[in-house]
Fold this sequence. Notes:
Elements: H1 9-16, H2 21-31, H3 33-43, E1 49-53, H4 58-67, E2 73-74, E3 81-83, H5 89-96, E4 100-102, H6 110-113, E5 121-124, H7 131-140, E6 145-148, H8 153-166, E7 171-173, E8 180-186, H9 201-204, H10 210-225, E9 228-238, H11 247-254, E10 259-267, E11 277-284
Parallel strand pairs: 5-6, 5-8, 6-7, 8-9
Antiparallel strand pairs: 1-3, 1-4, 2-3, 9-11, 10-11
Amino acid sequence: MFPDRNHDAAGFLAARGSTAPWIAGRRLGELGLERALACLDLQASTPQTFLRPAPGELESVRAALAAAGIEARDGPHEALLALDPAVRASDVFDCCGDRLVVQDAVASRVAPFCRVEPGWSVLDYCAAPGGKATHLAQLVGPEGRVRAWDSSETRLALVAENAARLGLGNLVCGPAEGEYDAVLVDGPCSNTGVLARRPEARWRVKERHLAGMAQRQLKILKDASAHVSPGGTLVYSTCSLEPEENGGVVQSFLERGGFGLEQALTIHPDEGAGDGGFMARMRRV
């Protein structure tokens, strides 16, 4: 039996969402009982599978999937298609893998949030496995260039594989060098926004870990910011819902000077088709 929701709302949410009490307590304080319940229920459910077709390829991908006997529904926004979670990824890639990326609804919003323009130079500083880097490469077009870097060489190889699969000759992998019109830092985080996809995170991460994670994220953001050209764009994103890792990191970074905040956005699972996250866009001044 669950704890009584009227007398122990946090305990009820933790049991109902099969998650750590500190996570349940935070969502309760932020969102209230009913909305927190809706979000934790989504995060305790089997996540949907979303496909991001290359620009201009949505209908051709839908047709190719249909020819292979795979039904693709409209996704939560116009750039995505949704599949039944039981569909095997290998079947999808066999029929149209050169035209799509598997990417969740919130992650697919990060590259457009960067507001890059055709012809821009972009650095994806924590790029693996390449979903956002390939999206950026498609947005800047063949006249632009994207450099992808990651601290793990093994994971960085996945970015190169995805770029080759999609035929993106304007995306290269290697150490960050020089300055860029835009830099994206999708920092390593607690993953509390994507518990349906990372169920181990609900017990792996402790509340006491957040301060140390925020320090690491701030260092990564500072290092990456050195590669932003004057007047250029710096975007910081996570798949966390915790303020220490999100607004707290951005505020600490901005206090150093040299950058101004343009927009910050937190997306909860009930707004992100089951996933949550954070993104902030800054400009070098």
